[in-house]
Amino acid sequence: MKALLIRKLRETRREHWRIRVYIALINAIIVFLLSAIILSFMKTDMLIALAPALIYLVYEFFISSDESERALVERISLNNPDIREHIKTAYDNRKNKGRNIVLLSLSKEVSRIIDQTGVSSLMDSNKLVFKTVSAVFLSFILLSVNIMGFNVSFMHSLMDSEGIKHLIDGIEDSTGFDLRDGLSGTGEKKEYMADDRYEDSLERPDIGSSHGGVIPGFDEGEIPDSGGGAGSTSDENIFGDPSTASIEGRNVDMKLHPEYGGNIELRDVEDEAGKWEIPESDLQGEASIMPDQDPVEYKEFIKRYFEAMQQEVSGH
Amino acid sequence: MKTGGSLWGEIEIIKGEEKIKERDLEMIYPKIKDLYKAIVSEIGNIVIGQDEVIEQILVSIFSKNHALLEGYPGLGKTFTVSTLSQILDLEFTRIQCTPDLMPSDITGTYIVEEEGGAKRFKFEKGPVFTNILLTDEINRATPKTQSALLEAMQERQVSAGNKTYKLDSPFFVLATQNPIEMEGTYPLPEAQLDRFLLKIIINYPKKEDEGRIIELFTGEDRADVKQLIHKNEFLNIQRLTRKVPISQENRDYVLDIVTKTRSENNATAKEYLDYGASPRASIGLVLASKARALVRGRSYVSREDIEKMAYPVLRHRIIPNFESERKGVTTDQVIEKILKEVG
């Protein structure tokens, strides 16, 4: 019967080992996450954060001695003060020789109590829940830190792999969002603007008042051949005030919206019912990917209008 | 197995007896708690308001030890012990100690006996050959008589002439002493006091208990007690007492308490005590705690057992100094302080 107690303690010890493994893993994850967060602020490769976690695991499983039966008894006693004296007495007298009815009875009682309380008595469930929640919370913090654009070269190393590269390219192509640049590690989030791509990629000639135009006639300012015409820096309203144009005998009210990159409002002044405006929502995004905004029936009018203007200017 | 030889035969017999004894122990063990409750309840019908005293006497008996009862006259010391002996199916003898009481009056003496015209000496056993011996006012006996009794208590045998006579088993001495009227007495020396496991203090009963005592002893009917336990069962309980296990932690607790009664280990002891308790006190405290645990139906010694038994075990083993007497600090108060310090 004394052997029963020892057997029971060994069973409990095995169960406790499983709990210990779980706790050690949670602890290792917490150590990793904490280290990773610190490293991300220090702009260092996050892979280094694996080192303390691995060191902890090695210590826990290889260097730190396995919990002895005595320590287990202490732990059970600590978590269950009501059975403290029972279990300690039974364990301390486990090597008593000879048949002892009182000790046998105590061993039976302790085994029954261990069965009832189970392994739950060996772990602090609150502590375990706290650790698990902490691990989840730290994961969120780490993700947030990375997405907010702190130096996370770890992400770059991940992005270097071919599969992820293709995936990111696909996302960038479809959304126009530069993921790599967004996580560039400069610490500054680069905001996406519809005309950024245009600004960056198109090499347009210097125009406007500060530069002077180079296209004869069209971009000239007040003094011919010296530049300073309508430009992007001094006056963006290169089309002037809204006015009524007459195209082929029809008066057309035109309003240009350069800030949208091409919103043209055409209104037949003689036919109020026929006025229309391209919805602004259709103008979101890059000009290159925008649908054809001009209605077919006005295309010809507009073309001729600009040709007439060109001829008139040339004539002068 | 070889059984033909006399030695092997004896071993077989001993083994068989052991098995029977073990079976008896297994039978009595689960019943002890209820038995104890029944005994206390039965005595409680006649001895009113002395539950703690009864428990301590039983603890002393079950741990095969002796007890010293101290209380004022008329508190029912003798009555309690005689009632207990009836319940326990034990032989009971009482000696009233006086200064002229001789050792042979206790142990027995050789008398001349005539048989077939020839005269020869025959040992006439004294009152010590019993199961429960109540020695009233032991401090009134001379040191020589006290020594004779204490030898019997310790060795459980009596030596007369060149012969030794074994005492009956169980043998239990309950000595009483009166804390007043100290004139003409021979206080027991510390070495002899140490042989009593417990010093049990009997206090005055509460007012309501005393009312019941008056009713009980002035009425027409006299309540009787019935025998609840047989001698064999009693002996088995005594054997079981020593089998109660104690944890290392509680054993250390006992050691801490006892060693703290020594002035070299503790400031309180230095302040109030001349002498601390001996290792016999440690043994006694563990034994008494085991017996208390057993009668309470517990299969282990708890801290509570040790704390409760520390008072009766230690109070006659620590010698207060002049300072404590001057300040009116009792031995129980010193023990309480030490328990708090160790706690």
- CATH class of the largest domain in chain B, named Alpha Beta
The CATH H-level homologous superfamily of the largest domain in chain B: P-loop containing nucleotide triphosphate hydrolases
Give the distance, in angstroms, between the N- and C-terminal Cα atoms of chain A: 120 Å
Which geometry of chain A do the CA atoms define? rod-shaped
Write the H/E string of chain A, N to C.
HHHHHHHHHHEEEH
Q: What's the alpha carbon Rg of chain B, rounded to whole Å?
A: 22 Å
Could you estimate the helical fraction of the residues of chain B in percent?
40-55%
Q: What fold name stands as the CATH topology of the largest domain in chain B?
A: Rossmann fold
**What's the helix count of chain A?**
11
What share of residues of chain A is helical? 40-55%
Write up what this structure looks like.
The complex is a heterodimer of chains A (316) and B (343). Chain A has 316 residues and is mainly alpha-helical. Among the domains of chain A are: 2-147, no CATH class; 243-315, no CATH class. In chain A, 52% of the residues lie in helices and 6% in strands. Chain A has a three-stranded antiparallel beta sheet with strand order 1-2-3. In chain A, strand 1 (243-247) and strand 2 (250-257) form a beta hairpin. In chain A, helix 1 packs parallel to helix 5 (101-117) and helix 1 packs parallel to helix 6 (125-147). The longest helix of chain A is centred in the N-terminal third of the chain and has 40 residues, at 2-41. Chain A is rod-shaped, with a radius of gyration of 39 Å. Chain B has two domains: 21-233, 3-Layer(aba) Sandwich (Rossmann fold); 244-342, Helicase, Ruva Protein, domain 3 (Orthogonal Bundle), CATH 1.10.8. Helices cover 49% and strands 16% of the residues of chain B. In chain B, helix 3 crosses helix 12 and helix 12 crosses helix 13. The radius of gyration of chain B is 22 Å and the shape is globular. Chain B starts with 5 loop residues before the first helix and ends with a helix. The mean pLDDT of chain B is 88. Classes of the chains: A mainly alpha (316), B alpha/beta (343). At the A-B interface, helix 4 and helix 5 of A face helix 1 and helix 10 of B.
